[in-house]
Specification:
Blueprint lengths: L3 E8 L3 H11 L5 E5 L6 H5 L1 H18 L15 H24 L6 E3 L1 E6 L2 E6 L2 E12 L3 E3 L11 E3 L12 E5 L3 H12 L3 E5 L11 H14 L1 E3 L3 E7 L4 E7 L2 E7 L1 E4 L3 E3 L33 E3 L10 H17 L12 E4 L4 E6 L2 H7 L3 E7 L4 H5 L6 E7 L5 E8 L2 H13 L4 H5 L10 H13 L18
Helix pairs in contact: 1-7, 3-4, 3-5
């Protein structure tokens, strides 16, 4: 027996699901949004925004700590962990409330609270507090998001925490072991360290954030190790717990170690929430991880009337990508059987570490795998004028430029204010610009953005062009 029949059912009310809802409603109002968990989106509740609140506090603490460099003495100061976390909670809740207000404004009956499972390609059973509701939908969008991954070796650790648990802390612990040096682990680990927490950052593969360029990874090892205890090649031996502490026994660099910590933070990645959907009851072909095979341009899964968006796709767990994929999937679910091909923006990833990390366009690894001929234009921010002025002279930027055409292909960097440099490069790559065209643009002096000009000049020199202007010449200004 079918309890409800709709044109479009969207499973998940996160960033991708809400974007799909808005897009589908432009084509039809016969839409149902199904959510079995908390409203408010991962970004606002446990992701982008609360993490940046913690990082903002950490950066203020570091600014006070470094004030003496500029001849400013602050004789007595302290970090109040309770007040730090209270501000995180207060503003996080405000961000969540703004999302909840948009959900509360939806027409009555457009939301169904409960956990959905597929019965067939066009039918769902939704477990609600009052029983099972069977929904028949002409089209379905999977936008169920993702959750922190817990490795098997930590499955029995009772005091573990994930990146989502951190934002429920009422104060700051004395010590934390962070396992995973990806985006989340690196951001939270460095922020906690700056806030006076003794942090040990463990990873198994030596990678730092999303970097793929070997030279930049080597540079990152040095910079991260300066900020906290960094163990890039650990192997777990075992652990023991008390009520207040966890002792981790591990090996690294051929030796065995033991460390006792107040908290353990697991940040080794995220798992798409598709395993509870009973996809085996559908006709969908799936990969080894159980993710439905889909067309990125339309969000459609095979030849079915099922679409997918956001973190459930297991591609890029980023808000702007979730929004874009949600719009694509929602639009095509609403338009079906017509279809509209969606375009994805230039790949852009930013890590809010210090120095920040950013990847734009084609990465070192991608160019290496495709055999694309290119040169690397570099700038060392340890020697860059504005970076020295503000005492943030650390890091490098590598610009990947096509041989022959001198067209910008991509970039990787660990550099001060990389978030702004990356956005400039994303626009340049999207417009198909060459390094010569980049050099025709204004670069104000003295700015960190002048580092982009240095990298462009270096790339032109490596392409064999003559009379390439060089930094520190009179035309550039000192330190430019």
């Amino acid at each position: 027996m079918v309890d409800r029949s709709v044109a479009v059912a969207i499973i998940g009310a996160g960033t991708a699901g809400l974007a799909a809802l808005r897009a589908a409603r432009r084509e039809t109002q016969d839409v149902l949004l199904i959510e079995g968990g908390a409203f408010g989106t991962t970004c606002a509740r446990v992701g982008c925004m609360p993490s940046k609140l913690l990082i903002a506090a950490a950066n203020r603490a570091e600014a006070v700590r470094d004030a003496a460099t500029f001849g400013i003495d602050i004789p007595a100061w302290s970090i109040d962990g309770v007040r730090v976390m209270q501000r995180v909670h207060d503003l996080r809740n405000a961000f969540v409330d703004s999302v909840l207000q948009s959900i509360e404004a939806l027409p009555e009956g457009m939301i169904l609270r409960g956990r959905a499972r597929f019965v067939s390609d066009d039918r769902l059973d939704v477990e609600t507090q009052t029983g099972t509701v069977t929904v028949e939908a002409e089209r379905i969008v999977i936008a169920t998001g993702s959750r922190p991954t817990i490795p098997e070796e930590f499955a029995n650790l009772g005091t573990r925490a994930t990146s989502e648990d951190v934002f429920e802390w009422s104060s700051l612990p004395a010590s934390v072991g962070v396992f995973g040096a990806g985006v989340i682990g690196l951001e939270l680990g460095q922020a906690l360290s700056r806030l006076g927490v003794r942090v040990s950052l463990f990873t198994k593969d030596g990678m730092v954030g999303p970097l793929t360029d070997p030279a930049l990874i080597e540079e990152a090892h040095t910079l991260v190790d300066e900020a906290l205890e960094f163990v890039p090649d650990f192997r777990m031996i075992g652990f023991s717990e008390t009520e207040d502490h966890v002792t981790i026994d591990y090996s690294a660099a051929g030796r065995e170690f033991s460390t006792t910590l107040e908290r353990v933070l697991i940040a080794v990645g995220r798992t798409p929430n598709v395993d509870g959907l009973a996809l085996e009851n559908t006709s969908l072909a799936r990969d080894e991880a159980g993710i439905p095979l889909f067309d990125r341009a339309t969000g459609r899964c095979g030849d079915s009337t099922i679409f997918i968006a956001g973190d459930a796709m297991d591609e890029a767990p980023l808000l702007h990508e979730a929004t874009r994929s949600g719009v694509i999937a929602g639009t095509n679910a609403g338009l079906y059987p017509s279809a509209r091909t969606g375009t994805h923006a230039v790949p852009l990833t930013i890590v809010f570490s210090e120095p920040q990390i950013a990847l734009v366009g084609s990465t070192y690894r991608a160019l290496d795998e495709t055999g694309t001929e290119h040169v690397v234009g570099a700038v060392d921010f340890g020697e860059q004028g504005r970076a020295q002025v503000i005492d943030r002279a650390k890091g490098r930027l590598h610009l990947y430029v096509a041989k022959g055409t001198a067209r910008l292909l991509g970039a990787e960097m660990m550099a001060p204010e990389a978030e702004h440099l990356a956005h400039i490069l994303a626009v340049a790559i999207d417009r198909g610009m060459t390094v010569r065209e980049m050099l025709d643009l204004p670069f104000y002096h003295p700015t960190l953005e002048e580092g982009l000009r240095t990298a462009c000049c270096d790339a032109l020199a490596r392409l064999g062009e003559r009379e390439v202007p060089r930094p520190n010449e009179l035309a550039f200004g000192p330190g430019g």
